[in-house]
Design a protein that fits this description.
This protein is α+β, with helices and mostly antiparallel strands and 363 residues long. Helices cover 32% and strands 22% of the residues.
Length: 363
């Protein structure tokens, strides 16, 4: 009886989340300046594609939205609710996602890689300074005069809570708070990292934010596939580059060159230049091949997760550096232009028969 009730509640929760993701996209769709409607033939092409791969029809709201935003029709757009509620749960061990995605353990997972350097950690209320446990008093004392660092939540996403931090004689640049008050504000599970000084070609896109690549990879056995790469560029004067908080993003082709148009937020479309005036189309990302090689190497060391999002910057010396990795990454379907590109059919075919670890028992 308890098992049946548990299954019933899981089905209800799955349905609620499916509706939530659908509402987000349909609300965003209504805010677009141009609405492109799918033709009868396009709808048939989509449904034939999905019925062959997963055995059922799919809702068309995501295809409608991304077609309207980009002007590019693709049968391979992945409905947002199916991706988050079903596909990610089949690809990744969802119960482990929060723990492994904690920014405070990134250096433990990848000890010999080029990572953003964490100076101070707060893990479950405990402080660690350069990896050694210290008291709160020592952590506060260390931060009385500090510069060229960022403070960020350990479990945050979309750039939320990330701030550049400067402290002079115990008073920070964040609302003139003391270090004690700042630690109280972040409560627990946060970190302070050294700022990354990016390559001149990346800084040219926007000098006030570290402009990063979001690289999505898929592991299939001993093979790691590149699903796509997009670049995220901050707006002038902002400290973060995430599209969800005002930044822009565009695709990166196989040779490391940027696409013609960038997309910002949920309805800012077809931007051809950055705020600094750089033309996006064909702009070369430095050390792109090194970045791809890095994430493919890293992915082999996180076997619980078959779909991973990697945030990579390029340092002044041209070396790629891992900012963080994401165990529950979104899909940049506006910037990239289709669901998972040329690998969409293969990934759906491989993953769909697997159990859903986010909503066990729901297929």
């Amino acid at each position: 009886m308890a098992l049946n009730l548990k299954n019933f509640l899981t089905v209800i929760k799955h349905a609620q989340k499916m509706r939530m993701y659908r509402k987000r996209i349909t609300d965003n769709n209504s805010s677009l300046e141009t609405i492109r409607h799918l033709s009868k033939d396009q709808k048939k092409e989509i449904q034939d594609f999905y019925k062959e791969l997963i055995g059922k029809k799919v809702p068309l709201y995501s295809h409608q939205y991304f077609y309207s935003r980009t002007g590019v029709f693709s049968k391979e757009y992945v409905p947002t609710n199916i991706y988050h509620c079903d596909l990610l749960g089949k690809a990744n061990m969802y119960p482990y996602a929060i723990a492994y995605g904690d920014k405070n353990i990134c250096d433990m997972l990848f000890p010999n890689e080029n990572l953003a350097h964490t100076i101070l950690k707060n893990i479950n209320g405990y402080f660690y300074l350069e990896g050694e446990p210290v008291s709160r008093e020592k952590a506060v004392a260390f931060c009385q005069n500090i510069d060229d660092v960022m403070i960020k939540p350990a479990g945050g996403h979309s750039g939320g809570g990330i701030r550049r931090l400067v402290v002079n004689e115990g008073i920070s640049n964040i609302d003139n708070m003391s270090v004690e008050a700042l630690f109280d504000k972040y409560r627990k599970n946060y970190l302070i990292q050294k700022c990354i000084h990016q390559h001149a070609d990346m800084a040219a896109l926007n000098p006030t934010s570290v402009n990063t690549m979001r690289i999505l990879t898929y592991r299939s056995g001993m093979e790691v596939l590149l699903i796509y790469s997009v670049i995220r560029i901050g707006r002038l004067g902002t400290e973060v580059d995430n599209q969800n908080v005002g930044g822009m993003s565009t695709t990166i082709d196989e040779n490391g060159r940027l696409g013609k148009y960038a997309f910002g937020g949920y309805s800012v479309d077809n931007l051809e230049r950055t705020d600094t005036g750089v033309v996006l189309d064909g702009y070369q990302v430095p050390s792109y091949e090194k970045a791809i090689a890095m994430v493919k190497r890293l992915h082999m060391h996180v076997p619980y997760f078959n779909i991973v999002g990697w945030d990579i910057a390029i340092e002044e010396n041209g070396e790629p550096i891992l900012i963080e990795w994401n165990t529950r990454p979104g899909l940049s379907q506006s910037a990239f232009g289709s669901g998972m590109g040329k690998h969409t059919a293969r990934i759906l075919k491989e993953l769909w028969p697997r159990p859903n670890t986010r909503f066990p028992g729901v297929n």
